[in-house]
Specification:
This protein is an alpha+beta fold and 252 residues long. The protein has three domains: 72 residues, P-loop containing nucleotide triphosphate hydrolases (Rossmann fold); 59 residues, no CATH class; 76 residues, Immunoglobulin-like, CATH 2.60.40. It is 32% helix and 30% strand. The chain has seven helices and twelve strands. The termini are far apart. About 4% of the residues have low confidence. The structure holds adenosine-5'-diphosphate and magnesium ion. The site of magnesium ion has 3 residues, from helix 1.
Length: 252
């Protein structure tokens, strides 16, 4: 099979033009892509590996349009990037199983794709910014800027007090979904001109196992409830402790 790259260009959001009209054709065989640091080698590899979108140009592997038929490319292509962390004390087969499970999860629960940031935000609310920063600083001094993922979770667990430990499992290890909704809200004007808002909510916490089966689990969580004014302006928010599944909770 032949790899045909034509007119490929990529400019990153910060304005760096990493690829400028790259064209080349590669036949079967073993090739090395050489160039100084910053030449754009990794950018080109990431585009071919379907991890990054090009701005312009085309890449065909035989008759497969690599920039469009991403799933087809992923079925054929193996890619081991320069920066790749493996867990210690795990067999190669175990590691592959683990990655396979993660990628299946990613496909099933897109929701999970952005979860890293949300999970870190949520944990920071509970353990505080200092503990969060200590965990991250320790990682950076140990591993530089490419900490293996297990190390991040471990460092965060060390900084998390006992009463919040179950959050680590919920946020980083299991697939946890909350099904929370408001049932009714009432506002009452107080003597001082402020308003008291009473919100009735229903909370449900679900975990999903590796086979995609969902089951309800008991609640012992903190949930943020907020009151919004015109044009979505946040008027007030409050974290409430929710301790029983499917219960009604009043927030004032
Ligand atoms: N995610 C990114 N955001 C912004 N600029 C980037 C990003 N990745 C790489 N670059 C920049 O794009 C250029 C090409 O980088 P890269 O493809 O990593 O080159 P190489 O792998 O050949 O060293 C460099 O100037 C680099 O700083
Ligand atoms: Mg590189």
């Amino acid at each position: 099979m032949e790899l045909r790259i034509a007119g490929l260009s990529k400019t990153y959001e910060n304005g760096v033009k990493a690829l400028d009209d790259v064209s080349l054709t590669i036949g079967p065989g073993l090739y090395g892509l050489l160039g100084p640091n910053g030449a754009g080698k990794s950018t080109l590899m990431r585009i071919l590996a379907t991890l990054l979108d090009a701005d312009e140009g085309s890449a065909f592997l035989g008759d497969i349009d690599m920039l469009r038929s991403k799933l087809e490319v992923r079925r054929l292509l193996g890619y081991l990037p320069q920066e790749f962390g493996v867990y210690p004390r795990i067999s190669a087969a175990g590691m592959l199983d683990h990655i396979a499970i993660l990628s299946v999860r990613n496909e099933q629960f897109h929701i999970r794709y952005n979860k890293g940031g949300m999970a870190l935000y949520e944990l920071r609310q509970m353990i505080g910014e200092d503990a969060m920063n200590r965990a991250l600083r320790r990682l950076l001094s140990q591993y530089g800027y490419a900490p293996p993922p297990y190390a991040l979770v471990g460092a965060l667990r060390d900084e998390t007090p006992e009463q919040y430990r179950c959050l680590i499992g919920d946020l980083f290890e299991d697939i946890t979904l909350f099904n929370n909704h408001m049932q009714s809200a009432q506002a009452r004007r107080l003597a001082d001109g402020k308003y008291e808002v009473t919100v009735k909510c229903q909370f449900q916490k679900l975990k999903t196992d590796n086979d995609g089966r969902q089951s309800e689990v008991p609640l012992d969580d903190w949930v943020e409830v907020g009151a919004f004014g015109k044009a979505g302006k946040l008027l007030h928010r409050k974290r409430v402790h929710v301790a029983s599944p499917g219960n009604e909770t009043k927030v004032s």
